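It is worth pausing here to work through a concrete case rather than discussing structure prediction in the abstract. The textbook approach is simple: state the sequence, then state the predicted structure, then interpret. We follow exactly that order.
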Amino acid sequence: EAPVFVQVPNNGTFKYIPQDDRKAIVRDDTYETLGLFKDSYQIHQYEEWLLGTVANVIDDSNLQIGSAGLLRSGGVAWVSIEMPETISTKAGFEFRPHLLATTSHNGTLATTFKRVVTAVVCDNTLAGALGEDGSEFKTRHSKYSNGRIQDIRDALGIIHSMADEVSLEI
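Step two, the predicted structure:
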């Protein structure tokens, strides 16, 4: 987070007026501005918040990460947790269910947890996975977004039941 200032004329020079009701979200390595938000905006840090929440949701700190990455200059992040075994349907189709967790620092996404079968590797596959039918839980970036582990579990029905549902559908 970084403060926001407005530059205004002041006797032939400029002065900077702090905007106490706003904050900038910037990368901590390049200081590139990812977004400007109201002061109530709550950052969901990628590693600590996103991975920590996923570990709590599935009740396992040894995550089977299928893919993870940053998009849009670090403004969007995702992590996809896979079930350890590949599922084979009666039709011979194989798939591996995923729990997708994604969030943004640029204001483009609410933090989302979703059961998917798409393997996310880029913007397009992330959009495709988020567009899949299936259980999901979204939370805005607000001071009320922490501590909702049971709500996420309830909304997703946890990933283990997904294998049966997808197999039946196929």
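Step three, interpretation. The first strand starts at residue 2 and ends at 10. The chain is about 20% helix and 40% strand.
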